[in-house]
Amino acid sequence: MIKAQTLNFLKELVDNNNREWFQANKERYDKARENLIELTTSLISKVHQIDPGVSADLDPKKSVMRIYRDIRFSNNKTPYKNNFGVSIPSHGLKLGGVEYYLQIQPGKSFIAGGYWMPEAEHLKAIRQEIDYNAADLKKIVDNPGFVKLFGEFRKQEQLKTVPRDYSADNENIELLKLKSFIVFHQLTDKEVQSATAAEDIAGLCSKIYPLNVFLKNAIG
């Protein structure tokens, strides 16, 4: 579970996003990160039982993403993220791709899954899989229980034009125009601080699992 101290650290970081404050509170950051690693260790174990593609050898320390922002090409020059991110890949040890993603942020925590902004080769393969087997994807994302947890799958960023090799009158054009193939479910501060947080989040991952299977099958 996430400790109140971890959320409090992130809350204060928002108003003190500078190196001086961060260095003065480095011990608090280290404890918050350790809290995330503890939760991630439990979560990896539980999600591995749901999705065998999640490696039992995944290092929880590497799954917890860096809090330091890359500001080289950003107008926002604050040096730190105001959240903790956890990537649990659905295949192998490389972070990103088809994954489960947990974000811890006061008032804005969530669990997500799928594939965010696939590289060109993978995007092409996923679109081809949708074109050939759209019924399989629609069975997953249009299930009432799935929609209740994650919302309307098609209402995420789409191309403004029809993707190459497909026609505007394709019955699955809304799915084919998607740029990402992700779902997410908001988590309250109370939920992430619950003693059963790892088990509850893993339960949500079990609902995401069929989508990840579809995407993994698409990209081989």
TrEMBL record:
Phylogenetic lineage: Bacteria, Pseudomonadati, Bacteroidota, Sphingobacteriia, Sphingobacteriales
InterPro entries annotated for this entry?
CHP02453, UCP028451
What this protein is called in its record is: DUF2461 domain-containing protein
* Coiled-coil portions: none
Question: Short name of one Pfam family for this protein?
Answer: DUF2461
